[in-house]
Amino acid sequence: MQSRSRPLRTAAAWLSACLFLVPACKSDPLTHSTFMAVSPTPTPDATTPPPSDGGGGTPNVDAAPRPDGMTGGGGDGGGTPNLDAASRTDGMTSGCGMVPDFATGSYKEYHLSIAGPDLDASNQPKVRDRAYFVRLPPNYDPTVPYRVVYIGPGCGGTSGVDVLRFYTASMEDAILVAIMPLLEFGQCFDETMNSVEYPFFDALHKKIESSFCVDPGRQFYSGFSTGARLGYMLDCAFPDVLRAVATIQGAQPPVPACKKNHIGLFVVADTMEGGNPYMANVMAAQRVFAQNGCTGTFMSPMPPAGCGTACMTYDTMAATAAPPTTTCVKYTGCPADGPVVFCSTIGQGHKTFEPWSVQAFWNFFKAF
Predict the structure, then answer these.
(1) Backbone phi and psi for residue 234, each to the nearest 5 degrees, phi listed first
(2) DSSP symbol at 210
(3) At what angle do helices 278-291 and 226-237 cross, to 10 degrees?
(4) Which residues, at least 6 apart from 208, have a Cβ–Cβ distance to it below 8 Å?
(5) What is the C-alpha R_g of the chain?
(6) Could you tell me how far CA 195 lies from the centroid of its own chain?
(7) Domain count of the fold of the chain
(8) Percent of the chain scoring above 70 in pLDDT
(9) Mean per-residue pLDDT for 328-337?
(10) Is residue 2 part of a domain?
């Protein structure tokens, strides 16, 4: 498992439109609509001071019901229903019924050619070859819609073996998609405002939906280090696609004004982490707290003081013991379809904390 880290990137202009070269994805009537930037420039959240690198943003106030039938409000905190973007509601994608072209129970490499928001030497959208790996559960049934977990590795990841070993927890119940970073960004993900990751993920999730039997209302993301930073970008731009995001030892990159669809967030961060500062994860949690319309005042979960009455102790229900010094809390003011969970460790280093982490994340995802 790669664990190399590096400082946050600086911001650039925000993505203006989705450009990608996957005709099957664009024409598939059962996948989501074309992704568009929600705002041309980041707008600071009135309740959340922006980070020094220019991140943060004010979410849009118009959002949509989740594709699994859940809406905003209710649950353990309330919040305003969202109307940003609607998704499919029948629980199936066009990939259902398609027989896979590889053996189940192991990762297979695939590639997508994606035109990014930046230009090449000919002043044309720069096309990149992006690698990803798909693992179907051993007893995959192409007629049954599955949860999907997209997974991002730390810097230096090059194959499916470099991501969190999610299959040890999900077993027969999820399609796993390992997303690979790019050499041109230091073999990390592009964490700039004008990130190439936005059109890539837009094309990728549509490709997965049109190739395999997916439950569109139960798609998730989990990542470590630079993969965790990518998670904070995706929960901002794709809350109409992803149901929840779980991160380990990441940091909040610069992000645009976010779609305000409710999305679950589970953060694991160490208070003594250097390259991925603890408070940069707190800032990401505060942003999602606002994005989900959580009520009350956001309080930092940092031990020993913690977040007081703004949160409650959270049981991960993991079969494996948590790392030493771990404290987990859940914010009480958030809606049932947009929970925010934060686990803090102290002096445990830049680690993935497997198998505890994937067990905890999978239990969190299963609740949706």
Answers:
(1) -75, -35
(2) H
(3) 20
(4) 95, 134, 148, 175, 177, 214
(5) 19
(6) 15
(7) 1
(8) 76
(9) 97
(10) no
Residue 14 has a pLDDT of 31
CA–CA distance from 52 to each of 8, 188, 279 (Å)?
10, 21, 12
Whether the upstream peptide bond of residue 355 has omega within 30° of 0, thus cis, is yes
Confidence (pLDDT) at 314 = 98
3-state secondary structure of 170: helix
| pTM for the full predicted model | 0.81
Whichever domain contains 356, its CATH number is 3.40.50.1820
Whether residue 47 is predicted with pLDDT greater than 70 in this model: the reply is no
User: Residue 44 pLDDT more than 50?
Assistant: no
The torsion angle over the Cα atoms of residues 77, 78, 81 and 82, rounded to 10 degrees, is -20
- Tell whether 12 is covered by a domain: no
Domain with 211, as residue range(s), is 23-366
193 touches 11 (CB < 8 A): yes
The reply to whether 4 falls in a domain is: no
The answer to whether 238 touches 37, Cβ cutoff 8 Å, is no
Q: Is residue 10 one of the residues assigned to a domain? A: no
Digit-coded pLDDT (tens) for 121-136: 999 999 999 999 999 9
How many Å apart are CA 266 and CA 206, to the nearest integer? 24
